From TrEMBL:
Start and end residues of each PurM-like N-terminal domain: 65-170
Pfam families: AIRS, AIRS_C
Family, similarity comment: Belongs to the AIR synthase family.
Name used for this protein in its record: Phosphoribosylformylglycinamidine cyclo-ligase
Lineage: Bacteria, Bacillati, Actinomycetota, Actinomycetes, Kineosporiales
């Protein structure tokens, strides 16, 4: 007589590691922060299959162009996880996305997020989303939806990653593009709040090599190194839009300084045949950059090709608009300054110059001089 097949214990979604009830609790905890980003254009609330945004105002545009961007925050998440501080990483996420959109003169309208976790911890998810909502408030962007996905077995219980996407709009004839730039234009810098969200693989490598813990107090920073590294990304959206409104066609280009550093990102928005020369002596990078480069013996070329070194956003303006631009940002509590000037480029390769980044056959950028102490 054949023996009976063994009976396996019942397997449920919960026993497989997915807690749908925890997900529901996380949604309840985040509702209030998300609601604060909503204006009358947002229809419905959380929980729908899709976020709805009333775009009927676009009928007033002659030729509306939609701009979109998506991004994450990279390995900065490792710092947030190690310190168990999760309410600022969302600000970084929003900054990385919306400030790419505003570069072309577009106003961000709405954003969605995606959070992948090893295990849903409602309070942690709510903290992450509260940061995303804060970033959306700072940029005038509606957070209309998102998704939290639990990946047991693929991610450790305390692991997570975040990504987001946003959509904006700009009138076609008001779009900022490289064809506005011409020799004689002036390059203006806006200060970063610190490292922002790029270069953290190098940062983490430096700290590991030096044997530094994130809790180490650093007198020259006035706080621990971990607290410094979690400083949220400055969001420039409303400041740049104010410049778009005030300067009109005298604003010739805008560049968001992210991965690749200052020169590489500015080169992306310059047309072929132009070259910008930037003077390092016009600003002092924040102490954290000097600390990391000394601690890791990081070559200057690597530091300049990895970090923003104190410049988070760059504008190229007509020379006649320089004073008005500086006054505009001063009135918005941003200490903008003149970085350099745009000239002609004859195509000759110059040592230390950067050209042709991110697949864009654009202009050339060169940094000269030494940083101000």
């Amino acid at each position: 007589m054949a023996s009976a097949e063994p009976v396996s214990p019942a397997l449920t979604y919960a026993s497989a590691g997915v807690d749908t009830e925890a997900g529901d609790r996380a949604v309840e905890l985040m509702k209030a922060s998300v609601k604060r980003t909503h204006g009358p254009e947002v229809l419905g609330g959380l929980g729908g299959f899709a976020g709805l945004y009333d775009a009927s105002f676009l009928t007033s545009y002659r030729r509306p162009l939609l701009a979109t961007s998506t991004d994450g925050v990279g390995t900065k998440i490792g710092i947030a996880r190690a310190l168990d501080v999760h309410d600022t990483i969302g600000i970084d996420l929003v900054g990385m996305v919306v400030d790419d959109i505003v570069v072309c003169g577009a106003r961000p309208l709405f954003m969605t997020d995606y959070i992948a976790v090893g295990k849903v911890v409602p309070e942690r998810i709510a903290a992450i989303v509260s940061g995303i909502a804060k970033g959306c408030e700072l940029s005038g962007t509606a957070l209309v939806g998102g998704e939290t996905a639990e990946h047991p077995g693929l991610m450790a219980p305390d692991e997570y990653d975040v990504a987001g996407a946003a959509t904006g709009v700009v009138e076609a004839d008001a779009m900022i593009s490289p064809d506005r730039v011409r020799p004689g234009d002036v390059v203006i810098g806006l200060p970063s709040s610190g490292i922002h969200s790029n270069g953290y693989s190098l940062v983490r490598g430096v700290l590991k090599q030096a044997g530094w813990s994130l809790e180490r107090d650093v007198p020259e920073l006035g706080r621990t190194i971990g607290e410094e590294l979690l400083e949220p990304t400055r969001i420039y959206t409303l400041d740049v839009l104010a410049a778009v409104e005030a300067l009109g066609t005298e604003l010739h280009a805008v560049s968001h300084v992210t991965g690749g550093g200052l020169a590489a990102n500015l080169a992306r928005v310059l047309p072929a045949g132009t070259s910008a020369v930037l003077d390092r002596s016009t600003w002092s990078p924040q102490p954290v950059f000097g600390l990391l480069t000394r601690l890791g013996s990081v070559p200057r070329a690597d530091a300049e090709g990895t970090f923003n070194l104190g410049v988070g956003m760059v504008l190229v303006v007509d020379a006649a608009a320089v004073n008005r631009t500086l006054e505009l940002f001063a009135g918005r509590n941003l200490a903008a300054w003149v970085l350099g000037e745009v000239g002609k480029h004859d195509g000759t390769a110059t040592e230390g110059s950067v050209q042709g980044t991110k697949g864009v056959d654009g202009g050339s950028v060169r940094l000269v001089g030494e940083y101000r102490a």
